[in-house]
Amino acid sequence: MFTGIVDLAKITNIQSSDSGWELTVESPAISPLVKIGDSVAIDGACLSVIKVEKDNMYFFASPETIDKTIIRNYLPDTKVNIELPMQPNGYLGGHYVLGHVDTTAIVSKITEADKAWFLNISIPSTFEKYVVYKGSIAINGVSLTINKVTNNSIELCIIPVTIAKTNLSFLKAGELVNIEFDILAKYTEQLLNKREVGNV
């Protein structure tokens, strides 16, 4: 489990095969802290470490993970967000993020203001039920608060420290992002559905 408070890392190599991709991720800060088998979130997608060499970590991405996330668009030198799992005695600085990307969505508009950026993202209609004003959402693994909901679009306010420390600063309108919706919303939906079935 993660919290959506991330650091920046870089894809240095991609080895593709019929069974999936092997990703090499460079992070001098994170690499010394992990070992083979550890879970690490890359742009919000939970991947397992298969090898560690100095500043580099190696991950395997299955065809399903590649297909359902922005990993399919990765190239060498792509900047990615990286996060280690939450520790039991650590701070929950963002919100509960599982590392299970629900979908990708298109950045429809970016507005750069003096002290913040405003990011508009088009949400697929299937997932509209999980977005709520002032609710939490993970974009490329970054925990953010929904600033506005309009039809099938959400607006997010990106503060300077988030711009500086994440790959959201490299986004352009028309690009895809990974989205994980709040797990509490999904559990609530399931409980309500079961209650309705029980009352039939």
Automatic annotation (TrEMBL):
Has the keyword Transferase been applied to this entry?
Answer: yes
For whether the record's keyword set contains Transferase, the answer is yes
Q: To which pathway does this protein belong? A: Cofactor biosynthesis; riboflavin biosynthesis; riboflavin from 2-hydroxy-3-oxobutyl phosphate and 5-amino-6-(D-ribitylamino)uracil: step 2/2
CDD domains per the UniProt record, alphabetical: Riboflavin_synthase_like (cd00402)
Report any one BP term from Gene Ontology: riboflavin biosynthetic process
The catalytic activity, as recorded, is: 2 6,7-dimethyl-8-(1-D-ribityl)lumazine + H(+) = 5-amino-6-(D-ribitylamino)uracil + riboflavin
Lumazine-binding domain location is 1-95, 96-192
Q: Name one GO molecular function term.
A: riboflavin synthase activity
- Keyword annotations: Repeat, Riboflavin biosynthesis, Transferase
Coiled coil feature spans: none
Q: Which Enzyme Commission number(s) are listed?
A: 2.5.1.9
- Read off the NCBIfam families from this record: PRK09289.1 (NF006767), ribE (TIGR00187)
Please describe what this protein does. Answer: Catalyzes the dismutation of two molecules of 6,7-dimethyl-8-ribityllumazine, resulting in the formation of riboflavin and 5-amino-6-(D-ribitylamino)uracil.
What name does the UniProt record give this protein? Answer: Riboflavin synthase
